[in-house]
Amino acid sequence: MKKLPFLALALSIFVSCKNETESMKPITVDYPQTQKVDTIDTYFDVAVADPYRWLEDDRSTETEAWVKAQNKVTYNYLDQIPYRKALKERLTTLWNYEKIGAPFKEGDYTYFYKNDGLQNQYVIYRYKTGADPSTAEVFLDPNSFKEDGTISLGGTSFSKDGKTLAYAISEGGSDWRKILIMNTETKTIVEDTLVDIKFSGMSWYKNEGFYYSSYDKPKGSELSAKTDQHKVYYHKLGTPQSEDQLIYGGTREEKHRYIYATVTEDDRYLVITPRVSTSGNKLYIKDLSVANAPLIEILGHTNSDSNIIENVGTKLYIATNLDAPNEKIVTVEASHPTPEHWVDFIPETKNVLTPTTAGGYFFAHYMVDAVSKVFQYDYEGQLVRAVELPGIGTAGGFSAKKEETELYYSFANYVTPGSIYKYSIESGASELYKKPNIDFNPEDYESKQVFYTSKDGTKVPMIITHKKGLRLNGENPTILYGYGGFNVSLTPSFSIANAVWMEQGGVYAVPNLRGGGEYGKAWHDAGTKLQKQNVFDDFIAAAEYLISEKYTTSDFLAIRGGSNGGLLVGATMTQRPELMKVALPAVGVLDMLRYHTFTAGAGWAYDYGTAEDTKEMFNYLKGYSPVHNVKEGTAYPATLVTTGDHDDRVVPAHSFKFAAELQSKQTGENPTLIRIETDAGHGAGTPVSKTIEQFADIYGFTLYNMGFKTLPTALEK
C-alpha cells in the first residue's frame, strides 16, 4: 500500500494573518489497496483496459468493503483539519433561520412550505383561505418519515378540488419513488402505496385519478441497471396499481427514455411529450372530453423542445424552439395542430424565453446575460408591462391558476438571500411578502459581471462575488464553479454555503459556459458531442482570467462542479493539473465510454454522444474521459471526490473508478480522496444535517490544501 505524507505548506494564513512561517502538521494518508482486474473492452479495434470494472457492482461485498475503507481514510484526514469544526459551527449558525416558501391555494386551503432553520426537510403548512396565516397548522411533515431525514418528499400534486393529495417520497436519495394518496381533510392515507416509479410527475384528471410515468423495474441492481423504456400510466382512485392503464410507451420500436404526461388546467387535453434524450421531444394531445379520442400527433420528431403551456377551448398555446433557438410562443387550433399551421404569438427575440401563465396573462421570463427580465402579455399577445423587479438577479415563479388575481415570485442573487414578493396581476404592483432574517449583510459584498475571451475567441460571461474592499493581490482563496451542459443556465442565486465561504474572504466565481442554456439552443449545442471541449476551454479560460486579474493564483484556486459539472472538473484537472490547487468533482460523469450503460444514462447522448456511435466519437470521448486520462507520474491537484451510495442518476462507480485511478497514479504530495455519503443520492432531498457536514468537509479540505493554518478568530469564538 502507498504511504505518503501530505504537507500543505503555510503559504499564508487565511485573510488577515498572512506572514506566519511555521509549518503545518503533515497528515499521513495510507490509501487502501484497490485491486485491478484484467477487463478489456474493444471499440473499433482499439483495446481499452478497465481495471476497476469490479467497482461497478454496487451490491458486492468487495465494493462495500472498498467504500468503507476509503471513507475511513478520508475521514481520518478530515478529522485532523484544525478548523473543520469551526466551519461546521458557522455553517450551522448561518443556516439556522426560518425559510418560508410562496403560498399556493388548493381547494379551501392556502398551503406553504416552511423550515424552522435546521430541519432536515421542509414541512408543509396550511390554513383556511381568508383566515389569518398565523392559524396555519402542520399538514405534512417529511421529517417524520425517518428520524435521520433520509426519506424525503419527492413531489406533490393535488386533485382539482383539493380534497386528495398524491405525494411522492424518495428513500436514501434514490430517483425511484413511491406515491402515497392522502385525504386532505382527515390527513389519512386512503389507498395502497404505488411503487417503482421514476422520473415522474403526477397530473390529475378532475378528481378521478392522475397520470404518472415509470420504467419496468430492471433486472439486477435498481441503483445501477439500465432503465430506458419509460411509460405513462393512469391511476384511477380506488383501484390497485396492478390495474393502472398503460397510456403510452413500452410497445414502440423507438426507445423513449423520458415520457411525461400533463392535463391542461381545464381538463380538456392530455399532453404527452416523449423524449429519446434530455433534449428534444415529440408532442401529442388527446381530447379528454371525447370518449375514446385518438392520440393526435403535433410533432413526430425530437428536433425541438416544444410543449403546450395553455389553451383557451381548442386554441393551443405552444412554447417551442423549433426554428427559434431562443424560444417563442405560437398558437394553433387543436383540429389541425401541426407546425405548418402555427402562428407566432410572442415571437423569438435575441434573449432566451421561459414563459409561464397566471391569472389570465402570460409572463415572458427572459435571460439577458443570465439575468432576469420579465414582461406581462395578455391573451391577444399585447404587451401589458415590463415587470419591475427588486434588482439585478434571478426572479422565479410568476405562475398561478387562471382565476387568481395575485401571484408570488422569488428574487435572489449571489449576495441577496431569496425573498418572496406578492404581485398584483392587474396593477403590476409588487410588495415584499417574506424576507429572511439571516445573519448575513448583503451590503458587505459585491457581485461583478465580466466578459472574458475563451480559447477560440468566444466571449463568455462570468459573475465574480466577494467581500467589498477585496485586495487584488493573487492571494484570495477562490472557488470557480461551473456546469456547462444540458441546456442548464446558471443564474445568480443565494447559497448559505457560499455566504460562509465569502465571509471568510473567499471569492466565488461562476462562468456561463457553452453547453448551458444562457444564450439559447446555439449556445447549448456549441458545448455538445464533438464540441464538448469548448466547455472545458471556457472553464480553463475563466481560471486564467481570475489569475491574470490577480483575484487569485493557481495556489489559491479550487474548481468545483457536480454531475455534468463533475465531468467538467475531472476533464479540466486532467488536462491542466497545474492550473488549480484543489479539485472538487461531485457526483460526476467520469467514465465517458460507459456512462450510457447505467440507469438512464443513455438519455444523455444528445450532449455527449456514445463510444459506439462512430470511431471519431469514440476517439473524442476517450480523449477527454477523466477516468481514461489520469496519467502516471503526474502531480494532480489536491482532490476530494464526493458521491452518494444511493446515486442512481450518475452511479457512484464513476467516482469510485476515478478516485482509484488518481490514487494509483498521483505523484507529489497532494491527497486524492473520496468521500462517499451513505443513504444519499444525486443531491435532491439530502438532509440539511448531511449538507452542512459535507460543506464543512469540502471547505476544510480546500483551505487546508491551500496552506491556511487558521481561520479568522470570528469563527473560533
Automatic annotation (TrEMBL):
SUPFAM superfamilies from the xrefs? alpha/beta-Hydrolases, Peptidase/esterase 'gauge' domain
Task: Identify the residues that the record assigns to the Peptidase S9A N-terminal domain, covering every copy.
Answer: 32-435
Ordered alphabetically, the record's keywords are:
Hydrolase, Protease, Serine protease
**UniProt keyword annotation of Hydrolase present:** yes
Reactions mediated catalytically: Hydrolysis of Pro-|-Xaa >> Ala-|-Xaa in oligopeptides
Task: Return the Gene3D superfamilies for the record.
Answer: alpha/beta hydrolase, Prolyl oligopeptidase, N-terminal domain
Q: Under which EC number(s) is this enzyme classified?
A: 3.4.21.26
Q: Which domain of life is it from?
A: Bacteria
Q: Which residues form the Peptidase S9 prolyl oligopeptidase catalytic domain?
A: 492-707
Annotated family: Belongs to the peptidase S9A family.
- Tell me the protein's name: prolyl oligopeptidase
Q: What is the native source organism of this protein?
A: Winogradskyella rapida
Q: What are the top taxonomic ranks of the organism? A: Bacteria, Pseudomonadati, Bacteroidota, Flavobacteriia, Flavobacteriales
